Amino acid sequence: MNGHKLHQRKVHVKNDDLMVPYNLDELPCGEYQVRISTDDEEVVYTVETKERPIPTEELPLMAYGKLLDDDTINLAVIGLTEPGVEVKVKTEKGGRVIYEEYIDQAEGFKKDFTFNGINPEDIYLEVTDALGRTRIIHF
Fold first, then answer.
1. Beta carbons within 10 angstroms of residue 129's beta carbon
2. Quick one: CA dihedral 112, 73, 87, 77, positive or negative?
3. pLDDT at residue number 2
4. CA within 13 Å, CB half, 94
5. For residue 30, what are the β-bridge partners?
6. What is the reported pLDDT for 56?
7. Distance from C-alpha of 102 to C-alpha of 28, rounded to nearest angstrom
8. N or C end of the chain: smaller count of CB under 10 Å?
9. Is 128 helix (H, G, I), strand (E, B) or coil?
10. CB 129 within 8 A of CB 81
11. Full-model pTM
12. What count of other Cβ atoms lies within 10 Å of the Cβ of residue 133?
């Protein structure tokens, strides 16, 4: 837009069906002009680059756990785009499931889990959302 030339390239071709790729990924978002000229003609194209959103599936599951007291664990899950989280409580030794629950909640939630007679250091949470993202939380 300011008239600065960012790149120039000469290509010698023998036929008219040549396609020359050009990668604009490294340029800042904005509007650019691409000029293609031959001995016979000149064509100017306007090209716009935009931010590419990160697909939700590539973001980590945001699940956090903290001890409230000797028997109670608080689980917080935030940033869900689809409802449905499976929570499994497993033993540290052997990974045996001792409790599981499906929470059909959109966006996010907080929930307390109380375990009488079980040391929180002896268990961990495996949290999986509807997109298949998993987070393991040890105490």
1. 22
2. positive
3. 74
4. 4
5. 49
6. 63
7. 43
8. N
9. strand
10. no
11. 0.62
12. 18
